[in-house]
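User: I'm writing a tutorial on reading structure tokens. Could you give me a worked example: one chain, its sequence, then its tokens, then a sentence or two explaining what the tokens reveal?
Assistant: Sure. Here is the example chain.
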Amino acid sequence: MVELAITLGLIFSLLSYEVFGLAAGGIVVPGYIALQLSQPDRLIGIILVSLSTYLVIKILGHYTFLYGRRQMVICLLVGCLLANFSRQFLVIDLTSNIVQLQAVGWVVPGLIAHWFGKQGIYRTLCVLFITSVLVRLIVIIIFNGELLPT
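And here are its predicted structure tokens:
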């Protein structure tokens, strides 16, 4: 199921870029987000980490030349560091429930933050969630209503 979700994410990401000219936060991101749609705390976590990465890059951009490949690499590095930080420090134990505001993957927050800078936060999030929901829907239909593993 995971491989199918990532493959469908690649297809929908490519289609959204070709048809609408909008990227879904990186070519592999919709598949990874589709796998996390049943865990809203992780979705919030990845958005928070991506926004934090974007803000760090904007601040660094005032003091350094961050364009093109250099900006992409710094986005990935900062996103990776903040994602690791979120795994360690953004797990909240509320007696019986555990809220995990942690980011998914190593490079996903950096990819999303990179596209925040290129096409805007609102557009990126809209296309990302539309493509992720479509991926999730198709995977559920193919596997007869079984939920994806989390």
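What the tokens reveal: The chain has one domain: 2-142. Residues 2-142 form one domain.
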